[in-house]
Amino acid sequence: MNKVIIKSFDELEKLIGSDLGISEYHEFTQEQINLFADATLDHQWIHTDVEKAKDESPFGTTIAHGYLTISILPHLWNQIVDVQNLKLQVNYGIEKLKFNAPVKVNDKVRLHAKVIDAKNLRGVCKANIGIKLEIEGARKPAYEGEIVFLYHFND
To answer: Would the pTM count as exceeding 0.85?
Structure first.
């Protein structure tokens, strides 16, 4: 897969409305879910108790934390785009995010991204990127929304 390379605000601005591409698939294992539960102190049984989830969950298995599926955005984003010539990049926000479907243990997901908007704010680029986390073989994506980055490009 060829990454989209962006080196300036002007290059990003030309991509408004463009589909940037799709990442490789990432599989959520029970080990990754458990480690996330440990890191966030969120040990709700639907994520970590395999036997109880098998018997009592409407999904028939454990599911990844919603915030875990969001936390891999930088990893998947970096498979699609290579933003170069930067002094600094800041994760600025998440907008219009809606969870549509759970990500079950061992599901494979991939990120689909497109440029919604780019604005030059006194030398700092504010980029709104449309995101959709697709679940392999599922009709609905795990979530859809926009992530917002601030890019401080070198002059």
So the answer is: yes
